[in-house]
Design brief:
Layout (H helix, E strand, L loop, with lengths): L4 E11 L5 H11 L5 E4 L18 E4 L3 E7 L17 E9 L2 H9 L5 E4 L3 E3 L4 E2 L15 H7 L2 E5 L11 E2 L14 E3 L3 E6 L2 E8 L3 H11 L1
Parallel strand pairs: 1-13, 2-3, 2-6, 6-9, 7-10, 9-11
Antiparallel strand pairs: 3-4, 4-5, 7-8, 11-12, 12-13
Helix pairs in contact: 2-3
């Protein structure tokens, strides 16, 4: 039986407008515990690296075999031989190391990552994750390392919008797309809200742009 989407007892409106993706990345960066080992998924989550301060002592891991990744490389700092898993040029921090792809996956599968941040097509109220295929004819043919990250990381954060372009909710009672992982998502960060997920279901804890009760009603009406 699916668990519900409700409001946290202390749910609040944290802003008068939805966050931009850069603001959202900064918020996620501020919520990552100091000293964590973190993997940032391909796409929007990579923006988080630009908002991590040296004082946070967060160490970034890349699926293609790097530990100690810095912010995205720009201008003269671009080295086309130094990229993240999404082929985006990145910088390296002091002490960075490189290793075989198999060793990278051993870190992912072995519970050595504290946090993983990924995008998603859908997240269920139960914390199921669907982020690799919509079933479209031109969809990528396999889930890749996302399933290893979803199950191997101690906490999984999802960075996504709450509504698709056609208005459908992406936070849903049950995912209709192929699953990446079951019951693995701990928190959803969206321009419209932050949602905590756990054994008691999903709870909206903070909203941006509209009151929590209004957003709750909008999500339910779009399911």
């Amino acid at each position: 039986m699916n668990t519900p989407l409700t409001l946290a007892p202390d749910a609040r409106r944290g802003g008068d407008a939805p966050l931009t993706m850069d603001q959202l990345a900064a918020r996620i960066a501020s919520d990552i515990p100091a000293g964590s080992y973190v993997n940032l998924g391909i796409g929007r989550p990579t923006q988080i690296s630009d908002h991590l301060s040296p004082e946070s002592a967060v160490t970034l891991h890349t699926e293609n075999g790097m530990l100690g990744m810095g912010p995205q490389a720009r201008g003269d700092d671009v080295d086309l031989d130094l990229t993240n898993a999404g082929k985006v040029p990145v910088t390296e921090l002091p002490g960075a190391s490189y290793f075989h792809h198999a060793d990278s996956f051993a870190m992912m599968r072995g519970g050595h990552l504290d946090v993983c941040v990924m995008g998603a097509f859908q997240v269920s109220f139960d914390g199921d994750l669907a982020n690799w295929s919509t079933g479209a004819p031109d969809a990528i043919p396999a889930v890749g390392g996302a399933m290893d990250l979803a199950i191997g990381a101690k906490q999984v954060f999802v960075m996504m919008t709450l509504f698709a372009r056609n208005g459908d909710a992406k936070l849903v009672p049950s995912c209709s797309y192929p699953l990446t992982g079951v019951g693995c998502v701990n928190r959803v960060y969206a321009p419209e809200a932050i949602i905590e997920l756990g054994s008691g279901g999903a709870q909206i804890v903070e909203t941006f742009g509209e009151e929590p009760a209004a957003l709750l009603a909008r999500i339910h009406s779009a399911d």
